[in-house]
Write a structure and sequence with these properties.
Radius of gyration: 18 Å
Oligomer: single chain
Order of helices and strands: HHHHH
Strand content: under 5%
Shape: elongated
Number of strands: 0
Helix content: over 70%
Length: 149
């Protein structure tokens, strides 16, 4: 009988652990998003009048996908995992667009850039946990098919 290596064992999160990781990552991203708002709530000091309505719609799409991921990761795990990966990719694209001055012509302040880098880190964690939850859902489906046949 083959014993799993430490790396193989590390990569196999349980389904509930992966779901909790997805939830924690989304909560962290949402908190960081609130901190990116203009004062008095957040740290954004650049004028919001320069932001195109297209980027506002993009922001709202990200928000909807993140919020939709939370119940779906528990109800329909495969769809929730896919939405989690999508939300993470969209968050990273938004940070890249902001740092490339596509959203606003002014340079982002240092504190705001640090917040955005934390969003990227939380998004990478969201991809990892969502991918683990997706693999876990596939393993569960595979096991159910074995039992039924």
């Amino acid at each position: 009988m083959k014993t799993p290596s430490k790396i193989e064992h590390f990569n196999k999160l349980t389904s509930s652990s992966a779901k909790r990781g997805v939830l924690a990552s989304i909560i962290a991203i949402l908190i960081l998003t609130v901190l990116e708002f203009p004062p008095p709530i957040g740290f954004e000091t650049r004028p919001q009048s320069d932001v195109s309505p297209i980027w506002l719609v993009f922001f709202l799409v990200i928000l909807v996908v993140e919020i939709a991921t939370i119940p779906l990761i528990y109800k329909i795990q495969r769809i929730g995992s896919g939405l989690g990966i999508l939300a993470a990719i969209l968050n990273i694209l938004q940070v890249i667009a902001d740092q490339a001055h596509l959203m606003q012509p002014e340079v982002a302040p240092l504190g705001y850039s640090l917040l955005e880098s934390m969003v990227v880190i939380a998004s990478v964690a969201l991809v990892y946990f969502s991918w683990s939850a997706l693999k876990s859902a596939k393993r569960t489906e595979k096991n159910l098919l074995k039992v039924q046949s």
